[in-house]
Amino acid sequence: MTVTLALSEGIATLTIDRHKALNALNFSLISDISEKLDEVRVSDARGLLITGAGEKAFCAGADIKELMGRDLMAQKRGAEAGQATFAKIAALEIPSLALINGFAFGGGLEMALACTFRMAVPTAKMGLPEIKLGLIPGYGGTQRLPRLIGEGRALEMILTGRTVDAEEALRIGLVNRLTETADSVADAQGFLGEVTRYGLPAISFAKEAVTRALDLPIHEGLKVEADLSTLSFRTEDADEGLAAFVEKRKPTFQDR
C-alpha cells in the first residue's frame, strides 16, 4: 500500500508511503491519492492532514524515469491527471494541512500548495526544481505559488529552481507555521484542531469566499500551465535534463 488513510477524532490523515523512494510521485500513486481523496470527501472528517512516511521526505517530486519517452498526449494527460488530483484537495469543503516533514520538491510541493495550510518541520526543504531539467512545473505550481507568496518571489523560485529552507518558507508565507515539538504529527493535528473547531458551513463559506476573490479563475490558469508544461517536454533541453538526472551528471542545455 502506497497511500494510507486513517480517521481519528475528526481528522483524516493521508500518508504517502514510498519512503524508500522518498515518497516520489508516480502515476499509480497519484491515482491512489485521488481515490483516497474521494473517500475523505464523503467521510465525517472535519479536517485533512497530508504527510509523508519516514523522516526524510514529505514527497520528493515526480518519479523522473516514468516521465521519459512518452508521446505528446501522454505528457498532457499526465499533467492533467496530477492537476485534477490536487484540485480535489483544494476543492474540499474542509480545511487541509500539509505536514512537510522533510523534502518537498516539484510535485510534492505542488501537492502541499493545494492544501489550505502548510506546516513544516525545522529541517524541511522545499522547491520547484523543474527548470533544472529543462521543464516547468505541471501540477499547479505556476498558478498556486504566485497566489500564495506573490509573483516576484514565485518567479524567483521557479526560474532558479532553488531550494528554500523552513525558516525562509515561514518568512515568505510559503508555510504557515513550523512544528514546535518532536511530535510533528501532534503539532499538525493541534493546528487543524484550531481551524476546525467552528462550524463547518462557515468554514466552507469562508474558504470559498477567499478563493473565488482571486483575479483569475485557477482552472483557466491551470489549462495554460498544462499546455506549456506539455510543450516543455518536447524540447531538446528537456531530453538532456532528464537524461542527465538519470545518468547523475550535470546537464548541458543548448536553448533548444
Labels describing this entry:
4-stranded mixed beta sheet; 2-enoyl-CoA Hydratase, Chain A, domain 1; alpha/beta; 256 residues; single chain
Overview of this protein structure:
This protein has 256 residues and is α/β, with parallel strands linked by helices. The protein has a domain at 3-180: 2-enoyl-CoA Hydratase, Chain A, domain 1 (Alpha-Beta Complex). The protein has helices at 27-41, 64-67, 72-91, 107-113, 141-149, 151-160, 166-172, 184-195, 200-211, 218-232, 236-247; strands at residues 3-8, 11-16, 47-52, 57-59, 96-100, 103-105, 117-120, 125-127, 164-165, 177-178. The chain has a six-stranded mixed β-sheet with strand order 1-2-3-5-7-10, with helices on both faces. α1 links the parallel β2 and β3 (47-52). α1 (27-41) packs parallel to α3 (72-91). It is globular and about 55 Å long.
Please give the structural blueprint.
Layout: E1 3-8, E2 11-16, H1 27-41, E3 47-52, E4 57-59, H2 64-67, H3 72-91, E5 96-100, E6 103-105, H4 107-113, E7 117-120, E8 125-127, H5 141-149, H6 151-160, E9 164-165, H7 166-172, E10 177-178, H8 184-195, H9 200-211, H10 218-232, H11 236-247
Parallel strand pairs: 2-3, 3-5, 4-6, 5-7, 6-8, 7-10
Antiparallel strand pairs: 1-2, 8-9
Helix pairs in contact: 1-3, 3-10, 4-5, 5-6
Concise account of the structure shown:
By secondary structure, the protein is α/β, with parallel strands linked by helices.
